[in-house]
Amino acid sequence: NAGVTQTPKFQVLKTGQSMTLQCAQDMNHEYMSWYRQDPGMGLRLIHYSVGAGITDQGEVPNGYNVSRSTTEDFPLRLLSAAPSQTSVYFCASSYSSFDSSYNEQFFGPGTRLTVL
Amino acid sequence: AQTVTQSQPEMSVQEAETVTLSCTYDTSESDYYLFWYKQPPSRQMILVIRQEAYKQQNATENRFSVNFQKAAKSFSLKISDSQLGDAAMYFCAYRSMNYGGSQGNLIFGKGTKLSVKP
After folding, report:
1. What is the percent of chain B where pLDDT is above 90?
2. A4-7: strand order across its sheet
3. With 90 as the cut, is the pLDDT of residue A70 above it?
4. Nearest C-alpha of chain B: how many angstroms from A43?
């Protein structure tokens, strides 16, 4: 049971380049989310998914695309990287349930992205 | 929309002493979850403690406990017998019990950086 995995751990891009941040979970969680963490800003929601084939925007979605073709995978695509997207990116997953035993979001190790 | 506020950007505590980190939140919902996450220099987000709003009893996990004041919308974290390994960024987070749409996600405060002095 690997939990939530993210690749790569570090990435440097040039302005205008595109790339995909990978996220996978093996806990059969319905909910998956992408957050970005910036100094002094906490974590902010980019996109989320409540199940395979269903995605929606969070607080800061501009410049990012997502898709959810399987329960396990939830990649985040940067279409044309900008310096403002320099950040640490976290993927998280959880069950979709009212049971308090299952309300925890599990986080991946994060990806540090620098856009020059 | 819900908001979470952590008013202490940085805190410092002496090893073996007790420290309290503050968190307030705003919501119109009556049922929700509150969490404290720890983020050490490794960057990994680690769940420290959780509280269900419908439970009056404050949650406790070993040296970590919370003071949950629902009417005041306050959710502070107390760390007793502080250890060097407690040095980290701490985030307070809110999650709705309504799992429709974006409400199943976490809303974070901006964090408090805790330093532990030997």
Report:
1. 81
2. A4-7, A19-25, A76-78, A64-66
3. yes
4. 6
DSSP 3-state percent helix, strand, coil across chain B (nearest 5): 5, 50, 40
Q: CB A90 to CB B45 under 8 A?
A: yes
Residue from the list B52, B91, B102 with its beta carbon closest to the beta carbon of A42 = B91
The mean pLDDT of B23-35, rounded to a whole number, is 93
Collapsing DSSP to helix, strand or coil, A19 comes out as strand
What's the pLDDT band for A107 if we cut at 50, 70, 90? very high
Instruction: Count CB pairs under 8 A between chains A and B.
Output: 64
User: How far is the CA of B64 from the CAs of A4, B34, B76, in angstroms?
Assistant: 25, 14, 10
The C-alpha torsion from B74 through A58 and A11 to B40, rounded to 10°, is 10
From the list A42, A50, A109, the residue facing B110 with the nearest CB is A42
Q: Which of B8, B45, B48, B96 to mutate to test the interface with A (most CBs of A within 10 A)?
A: B45
- Residue A72 in tokens: 């396990």
